[in-house]
Structures
1.
Amino acid sequence: MRFQFVLGEVFSGLRRNTTMVVAVVLVTFVSLTFVGAAALLQAQIGKLKDDWYDLVEVSVFLCPEGSVSPTCAGGEATDDQIDAVRQIIETELSDEVSKVYFESKEQAFEAFSERYPDGYQGTQLTADDMQASLRLKLSDAEQFAVVSDVLSGRDGVEIVEDQRAVFEPLFRTLNVATLLAAGLAGVMLLAAVLLITTTIRLSAVSRRKETEIMRLVGASNLFIQLPFLLEGALAAVLGSLLAGGGLWLAVRFMVSDWLERSVDWVAYVSEVDVLRVAPLLVIMAVALAAVSSFFTLNRYTRI
Amino acid sequence: MIRFENVSKVYARGARPALDQVSVDVERGEFVFLVGASGSGKSTFLSLVLREQRPTRGRVYVAGRDVANLSGWRVPTLRRQLGVVFQDFRLLQNKTVHENVAFALQVIGKPRHVIRDTVPEVLDMVGLAGKGKRMPTELSGGEQQRAAIARAIVNRPQILLADEPTGNLDPTTSLGIMRLLDRINRTGTTVVMATHDDEIVNEMRRRVVELSDGVVVRDEARGGYGEREAILPDVGASPVLDAPGSGTRAPVQTVRGV
């Protein structure tokens, strides 16, 4: 009985206020789309990191001949120095480093020739021009700072390089895009809250007489306010579902169908990620409506 | 049933109190007229009973509850024991008579079968049998007030508050409404009625509490409406027209039925 009655009130309220309700739906739709886009960008960054950080290594470049680095004062790194560095890696960095191998000058030359077969090999470039290095595979790519701290400045080590640094500009761009989306989302969310507040207020005023009778015959506060709460929540949830749907379509047609085909060596966000973000959007919509209702209802439907 | 202990109500700081040290005790099953000029505090009295407001000083007990200190979430429970009727009926225009009465039960969560049984019974009792499907606009003023009374008593309240229920009605229709209120009173419901209608008060011969400037000036067990200035005071040969304060007070007249 109660449930049916409240539902009836909700729908009659929605009907009476159609234009405002449509406005609420659209504004929540746009704002939550930005929220979802920000979340998906972060998911994309996470995917790229997972994917690429597995491929990259930390290179500990050993002193070549003629290096000006103070740790290379003794000329080219000796076998003793290299052994000492390996020793340190095995003892002090056993937790951080999962695999170590040595790349000699000859191996580096071979790898280089393989990648750039039309270089100047043999004439101007010989194996002696290459630099020997220790290649470290980290168990956790984020531990680079620790490894770098321990190994930099050792005798025979010229420089410790993190190949991840190559990706930094891309990630920075994606992070800025996330911030932008989040900023726009924030502005739109504020607009959504204000709009929901106004809608509830209008609805409350247009139902003033009903509310007054309800108060007088002893309806509980919750019972009086529930239809208004549900009205706001329903409109906001509808907006969030549209946002979820919009993001799904965008990912489906722009990422899965187009980007993935044109640039296929990158891991992209998929529809599954959208399904993971969508419930959060719905929860946000409900929270949004709850916050706005809280501020409005106490003023307009007080006992 | 209703007990005011030295109740004062001041709306604005420094203003004249709307009620000033009012003490009134209404027993269960009583019928009480609340009379007095506009602004004498009748409406404030009723709204304190309803706990639409809290008294500035003093205590108000309604149906055994200390209303002044009642916490907000208990107010609905209090109001379910009160029925209220107004001068302007306050029916919902977009609902039929039946729906208007049913509304009062729906919003306090009564089950559907209770509503189905009770509403026609109550409509019958107030003399609106067969008119449940009419819209309020299709009813006469008296019928609308009957519908409003039906709504007020459908939950069988212990107390019925009526704020000038006959104020918008002609004397004959008012009489019908008064008979109905009397009948409700005889079923054990305490009735408190604020009114300006001296004919009704004089005819009913029930307890009369008169307020004037927020003070109880009279509390009579079987009173009449009381003194009333004549509309055309006997000013004799004086040609002076009526000016505030200059009128000679007419000899006390009792209206009919005394």
Note: Residues 41 and 68 of chain A are 43 Å apart (CA to CA).
2.
Amino acid sequence: MPIQPLIDAATAETNLAEVKRPFTPQEATTEADRCLFCYDAPCIKACPTGIDIPTFIRRIATGNLVGAARTILEANVLGASCARVCPTQMLCEGACVLVDLEHQPIRIGRLQRHATDHVAALGIDVLPAPGEPNGRRVAVIGAGPAGLGCAAELARLGYAVTVYDKKPVGGGLNTYGIALYKMRPEVSLDEVQAIARLGVAFRFGVDVGVGDEAAQLLRDHDAVFLGIGLGGANRLDIPGEDLPEVVDALDFIEGLRARPLDEVPVGRRVAVIGCGNTAIDAVTQAKRLGAEEATIIYRRGEQEMSAYPFEYELAKADGATFLFNTVPIEVISNDGHVVALTLATTDVRDGRVRVVPGSEWTQPCDLVLKAVGQEKQIGLVERLFPGLAIDAKGRVAHDPVSMQTNLPKVFVGGDAASGGREVVNAVAEGKKAARGIHASLTGEQVRGPVQPSRLGMPDGATGSGFDHPIRVHELEAALKQG
Amino acid sequence: MADLSIDFAGIRSPNPFWVASGPPSNTAYQAHRAFEAGWGGVVWKTIGEPIVNVASRYSALHLAGMRMAGFNNIELISDRSPETNFREIAEVKRRWPKHTVIASLMVDTRERWHEFVKRSADAGADGIELNFGCPHGMCERGMGSAVGQNPDVAETIVGWVMEAATIPVIVKLTPNITNVVFAARAAKRAGADAISLINTINSITNVNLDTLVPEPFVAGRSSHGGYCGPAVKPIALNMVHACAGDPEVGLPISGIGGIATWRDAAEFVALGSTSLQVCTAIMHHGFRIVDDMKDGLSAYLDSKGMRSLADLRGRAVPHVGDWQQLDLHYKREARIDYEKCIGCNLCHIACEDGAHQCIDLVDPAPYGLGPGRVPGKPVPKVREGDCVGCNLCSLVCPVDGCITMTPVDTGRAAMTWHDYQSRLASGAMQPIPPHP
């Protein structure tokens, strides 16, 4: 039997409402007052876009919310969505010095949301006006975080920018792929509107992967930015994978926007394959849409999951169950519809996963969501720009500072370049590529403004996270070794 | 447990903690509650000709999350009749004979002073406090701080009071004066038994930036008020010390001004106070705060081997004197404990921009990882020798015990400014070169 919607509209709205409510003004002021206003603060280093966090928090503390939002959005044009989707515990909040003092970092993400919500609610534009037109044109392929980050920075530098995306609206993953209880698509769409007001042109519903569209773009523009992200879910390569109830987790998440929530079909027994953050988004939303059972199936152990600890906790709190060291062998159907999964126990030795012979069992389920990573779009890249160099991991090869590829007019950023990182990394890489494009075309290096809380810092020894990206957990891992 | 009882100018009190004259000491009901909570005394809200108050009356200075760090009022003296007040004082004294009740008074003519002094004694009050300090409303009518700011007038009025007084008389001094000692000496000359200080300080706490009317708001206007609360403690301590250290004053002191904890109380006693008066802290938290004040003060005295408050009283007075008496050769420098440092760099930027540029941010390599969990983060390092020992870094550091000011042995004998001038004059030494 095909799967059906399971809950009414009111329940759906309640279940998928934002998990983290916004701060009240008093909560925001109280939290902002806790900030020590560090000089050359580690939170700035841990922010890939290098937001001057102490400065914006001080502005919140004094009631200057518009100024706070300006500090945020000048550094990170997607500051409103990053406030909601950034894994702050792993970035700015993880680096907060108060973790060392009282174990409770400043809740930077929620403060950032407080400031950006304020200007959004009042319709105040705080992005700096676009630069004087310099007569140069750049095409941006992909209206996701990387493309938007690139387009906004180019507009500021005076470029005529056109952004192409095959989807009907912009925002990319921020609009289509974030769990609804974290962020509503409207936040992302507002950001696209703000960038459009900088004079950036958007061409939606255009697939530049057909015909010689890309070659034409390359001929007509001074540079092209490639921000195409990743493709569909990796295949499981097991029998039954093409049944109608075996779905990409990201497609399932995107589908929550396509129709009213009480019309979204969901299984009563949902199995999510994989244990990254997308798997968590999928299992949690399936549970909130009425699934009686929602189970994560992961071939490795609990310690090896790529989901962040707080995501794992959220899913457990929502009643999701976890089968570790378990792998799907076959999707079983009846009458053309999924009814069960054959699972087997695994044994991980020296990092290699082996199926334990004879350990198979059958687990009833009616919806399988695949979240075992997204495919690299190697085919699309080769079709777009023949000769573009791709590295061994399937990523578009590039210079880490300028984001320039082996084709001098082509620059890259976001997941197509990194293989899959956070939204905030994509915004930063887009911005970096914009500066790389500017340097390549004019020979001028763009420098960020000197931030009040870092005035006078020599560049080399310190640097914001934009110049010297730091991810606390990666560094901690490095530290454990060294 | 150390003995907290006091004898203040002949007034015996079970403990030094008195409710200061103000809103918390307005009625018998409040006095009963105060004594039930453990207060040793109540200084009644100032009695005089009944006045008319306005709404609103209070405003405050909130500082980064701390409410009422400073407090301001434009309330006047008691708005109840003298009959009611004296009747209630008598009632309270009957129920609490061993506790202290002081009648605070403010009237104008000699006759009225005589009358109110006599009525206070008749009501059974243990003493009288003369309100020469109220800085708003009453001073415009020739009373309150208008009296306290003019030592000659104060002396005259204290004289009138002493003519009729049969119980101890305390003169309450205003801080809104160039040198409080002159007023204290006037009280002494006129025969007063004790002084209490400080009254509130003239203030405007804040301006409403939407209406541009300061608070407290009264129908589109405001008025300067009297400032008190934790923020005024340093001013009060200085004035208490000035009176305690002046050989001509020589009167028992009731310390007032920002006392909220036993620590504050101990400091006021160490600088010469015998009784202690509290108002703002009660207005903030209620009478119950006296519980820890008594307990903490007793425990402190015990921990120092002191058997009573007399063992502590005035002990800090000789440690404060003129700047000229300080040792020019004494040296201390900041030391940073890298085990405790969290890497906020506030010490660096405070020293760099706000003081003497003696703390560098340096490569952490020689110190291992350095503070915090972000590798490669520079560490603050004091340039020893250049540090002038000003304390600023240790004051801004958010971590207790991270920056300590450590004495440095210069090998030189102590030399005061006076010594220095003498040695220069005699040619025994060359001038100390100016700081580069």
Note: The mean pLDDT of chain B is 94.
